[in-house]
Write a structure and sequence with these properties.
It contains ten helices and four strands; from the N terminus they run ααβαβαββαααααα. By secondary structure, the chain is mainly alpha-helical. The chain has a two-stranded antiparallel sheet. Strands 3-4 form a two-stranded antiparallel ribbon. The longest helix is centred in the last third of the chain and has 22 residues.
Amino acid sequence: MEQDRNIELFMAAFYADLDVLQKIIVNKTDTKIKIPLPEGGYKLFWNQLFVEVDVLDILNWAIWGFYEYFDEDNLCVIHSYAKDNQVIKTCINPSEYYSKVLDCIVWLCDNFRINNYAIKDYSRFRFLRHALFDDENWLDEDEVKEALENGFREIDLNLINESEKGNGISCYSLVQKGADYKIDPVDFTEESAIVDILGSDMSFHRLGMISYLSDRNKWDETDAYDMLSSLYQVGVSNYMLDIVMTKDS
């Protein structure tokens, strides 16, 4: 069945199982995956019953989400359960995972002659972060107008909105034109609104990723959307931060 194949391929990409990927992916067109939407109002935003994603998208999000830990062998999260007075420590080996993901990317790109170096626009997956409609920005028209009146530059405000959308192409262009990510037009702090938005999402969902990666047998088709959402928020958030901070390097 097609759905069984979709879930098998998703799990293989998520867990960087090269043997399974090589078994399923015979042609370049075999890399498309349809992840079913959970029950509820999700289809109001996606306008379909599934999220279509490519194996390479999943692998890229994974490599970007964990590249900072490529030389570390232990990454843990501690769960405390007051009801049972229990503390559970869950760990993964991020360097091992990073290496497996990299092997999958190299095989896929070499085998099908894919150029994976172009800057990516992931705004079509924005609903994996939260439920905002296509025409809604993180900073709405009134907030942009107020920020401009307070002396903030339009190019910097655009950078906030485009980075939150996951549009790497637009963000890179804005940065090259002089956009500055180090502004906070909402709370007027010395912090960066972009770092706060993306960094908080990334930190929270990395904890979820540790749980997902620590026990493959615990998760199934019903968890696929949430797994994809966490991976997106870890990987794409880190990717966007790298782009907006390009000139800091």
